[in-house]
Amino acid sequence: MPLTPLDPIDRRILDALQRNARATTLELAAAAHLSPAQCNRRHRRLEDAGLVMRYETRLSAAALGLSVVAFVNVVMERGHIRELGTFTALVGDNAQIQECYAVTGDSDYVLKVVARDLKSLSDFLMDTLMRTPGVQAVRSTVCLDEIKCTSALPLD
Questions:
Q1: Which of 11, 39, 53, 120 is the most buried (most CB within 10 A)?
Q2: Are residues 66 and 95 in the same domain?
Q3: CA dist 6 to 11, 14, 31, 35, 42, Å?
Q4: Residue 56 lies in a domain
């Protein structure tokens, strides 16, 4: 995907949207120092260019009783390409898995997983993940405290 050139006004609009996806056209216009009509045109252009992927609501995991966050390193069996579809289907279908990255190093994948408690995490690891064809080993790291969690990208 080719880079879309952004001027300072585009950056102000995108920054305002990252801070508040529900910002009104008037709020975006004020942040960008534009008229609402001009801001609306630029906003639509930025969406059409694919710079805005989606709008979403971030829920409070703790308020929903999901008090455990873990990062799980997954090692696949040698020649796991045969089972890749099964693994990616598990990742896509399981709401406990919030993020999944193919990585370099000792692991093949890193997952961000949420659970109600340590027992629920253990059940997920032992009864679901470890039983997935192609998965050779998992190593989990439980998060003790969230220091920073954002999806906002640097715009400078």
A1: 39
A2: yes
A3: 6, 10, 16, 18, 11
A4: no
| Cα within 13 Å of Cα(33), Cβ side | 4
Total residue count of the chain as it appears in this document: 156
Q: Read off the amino acid at residue 151.
A: S
Same domain, 86 and 22: no
Question: How do residues 43-69 score in pLDDT, each as one tens digit?
Answer: 999 999 999 999 999 999 999 999 999
Strands of 97-102's sheet, edge to edge?
A: 97-102, 109-115, 68-76, 135-142
Q: Are 93 and 128 in contact (CB under 8 A)?
A: no
Structure pTM?
Answer: 0.86
Q: Would you state the structure tokens that stand for residue 19, as one six-digit string? A: 């801070």
Mean local confidence (pLDDT), 88-102: 97
Domain CATH code at residue 32: 1.10.10.10
Please indicate, yes or no, whether residues 131 and 70 belong to a single structural domain of this protein. yes
Confidence of residue 122 (pLDDT cuts 50, 70, 90): very high
- Helix ranges (H only) for 103-152 are 118-123
Residue 155 belongs to some domain of the structure: no
Domain assignment of residue 26, given as a range: 8-48
